[in-house]
Amino acid sequence: MRAYTPKDDVQAKAYYTDRYYVAPQVPKSEVETDEVFAADLAAIKARFEVKEAYIQVEQMVIFINPHDIYGVLELMRDELAYTQLSEMSAIDWLAKDNTFEIFYQMLSMTKRKRIRVKFFINNGEAVDSVEKLFRSADWSEREMFDMFGIEANNHPFMKRILMPYDWQGHPLLKSYPLEGDEFAAWYEVDKIYGKEAREAIGPEIRDTARVDRYDSERFARLGFEVPKGTKITGDEPRNSQEYQEEGGVFLIKKYTKEASTIVDDPQR
Amino acid sequence: MAQVKNRLRPFFENITFDREDNELVLNFGPQHPSSHGQLRLMLHLQQEQIVKAHPDIGYLHRGMEKMAENMIYNEFMPTTDRMDYIASSSNNYGFALAVERLIGVEVPRRAKVIRMMLLEINRLMSHLFWLATTALDIGAMTVFLFAFREREYLMDIIEGYCGARLTHAAIRIGGVPLDIQDTFISQLKTFLDKLPQNIKDYEDLLDSNRIWLMRMEEVGVISTEMALSWGCTGPMLRASGVAWDIRKEEPYELYDEVEFNVPFSDKGDNFARYRLYMEEMRESAKILYQTIDMYAKCVKDAETELMAHAPKYISAPKLDIMTQNYSLMQHFVLVTQGMRPPVGEVYVPTESPKGELGFYINSQGGPYPYRLKLRAPSFWHTGILTDLLPGHYIPDVVSIIGTTNIVFGEVDR
Amino acid sequence: MAQHKVNYTQDGGLPVALTSIDKIVNWGRSNSLWALTYGLACCGIEMMASGASRYDFDRYGTIFRASPRQSDLMIVAGTLTKKHAEFIKRLYDQMTEPRWVISMGSCANTGGMFNTYATVQGVDRIIPVDLYLPGCAPRPETLQYGVMLLQKKIRANKAGNAQKPKRLM
Ligand code: SF4
Questions:
Q1: Interface predicted TM-score (ipTM) of this complex, two decimals
Q2: How many CB pairs under 8 A join A and B?
Q3: What is the pTM of this model?
Q4: Is B110 left (phi over 0), alpha (psi -120 to 50) or beta?
């Protein structure tokens, strides 16, 4: 019987895990331990529902409701001085509970603090665009759409950004293999030469450990290489490794090793 | 002569001719000598003036984030080299620091000093490269040759340390693999002593050059709001009047022990950015002088540790591996299965030569990161072209792209 | 008619060099290989370095041109992605013949370390390649050696032969 491989998560897996191994946690601390964060959290809590908040590795993480995101970021930008959206993207939890986790990484330059705002959406739902608040979200949201297929409502130009417009599939989903699917494998051949050329060009060679027995025979013979397909007889002429042919080259000065100087100190 | 038959049709996507409003659509790139890589710009022109710009990226998208999800942490280190390939060590460092924060190890002091030296050498290399290419785009061939000459010297030093010119992989999670070679300090000193004169040479050539001034001054002005809103960092932000340098504000490594200034300008134009790069080179030199002293002190205090001691995550020194059984076993497990950091997530920003380079790592306790997001500064510095270019003229495009200092390994990842 | 003792066929006889068409054509071709600037990624930086001060490519007659119409050598330096693939074909077709291609770096040769969905596994899937340079990134010296080998290859050709178009398929 063939081993069962899950289709919803095809990423590399640890091939051995101790059954009794319990992974430790990166320590989390209470928000109250930091006054600045505590004040910010109180300001956000006054207007919006905050599901969970903690501090991890010097940054506050808060979980909110998906439909509040525009309001929360507006509040943070205008009243709490978080003036920059450094980064936003998604995490794929489809295999676990069919959701995506979206995070927004905020930076306040006056307070020197960073907050990560997060929420969960179900598969197939869209997020609200914050492009009106932070222009940088324009491209981030397009990238998120490209990589995960999550659309942003009210975005002015919701198209792929990194992959070509006619690409199929969303590469960063866990169900997308690292080496691409059938469409990806033949993309350039189909586009340039057409499907009928597939046979002539042949499939991609992706096995990095592959050693062609004949190739190593041919190319390992330094100075006596033979072209592909010809028989090795053993008395091939020597291919010179020199820069110039032995007899010298027409109109060109002969290269002699003795005439060249070697510089010891490059910074002379 | 007949061409090989292929299916490519003339490429006029989004382009209509015979337009009522007399608008011309110009396709710039993706293989344009001054696009600093593979940037494609669709420019809508009214005569020479740009009315709409649409940058198209992704021509160097190599799937690094996906690769990270399929690699153990140490395996991913050489891949980070290829992000901002002009200053590879700064990417190595950003990744190493993020993982170190995640697993919570402290790096020995001597390794920190060496890392700082590498980082600042990389900053110098990157800025010199920026100067060379931008000057070349604007037509100043001499500066290109001068700046590359100096960059080669720095490459020699780095090459002596790690063996590679471009893709260093010189930093490991938990420290550095090697001590610096004997000639490192003397070579660096020779270089640094000449550097002020070299920078002055460039400035003499450029600062009062009429062509340079005309293409730089009052061109590509980025206001503070725009820079903040577009997520600009590094020199792009500092040229727009915000003195924000992560080395100063959220110090990592030993940056809180060294003395340096954060130059900034409130002009926001190309010339301000050019001046900033020059000043930052001087500041880097200052930091390097101080790290040389710090290194000498480390040697004097006989601090020889180069890797952090954390047997769960980091291999023991080579000597132990070769002589002690337990170290060998642990090394074997770490190499074949990879370290398993605790469950949690971390976002760590560092100040790379281009701006804020951040690594977001989400670990689920396995040997592979569950999600790794690379926050590359150039991505947003390319995005800002959408809003920045309209209103400018065609020749300005080249100088604006030049001063944004974008690198496509980083934009597309 | 005067009987003079000058040996015309030797150097210094008269400022005339007698040669075959092949030799003179190949001399011209091999020593003015104008390369298309095709820096795609990291290897492109090393290509620039070989054009810059220390390595000075110009002494081989190799000058970087920005237009495919003016160049006869394409140095594919860097990772070719699937999105970019069609452009390399387009530019290759626009180059005048005879034309040569150097694939620089492991990415261009085989896809290199980027064994992912987005990279083309070797430019020779799209265009014919004359010379592969190993390395990640190859040093400028490697590129120079490669260009010298290409010059040798050109010299070994019949002048007419070089014009035979190379076909991938
Ligand atoms: S071969 Fe290496 S250095 Fe060259 S483009 Fe590929 S990754 Fe970059």
A1: 0.84
A2: 147
A3: 0.88
A4: alpha
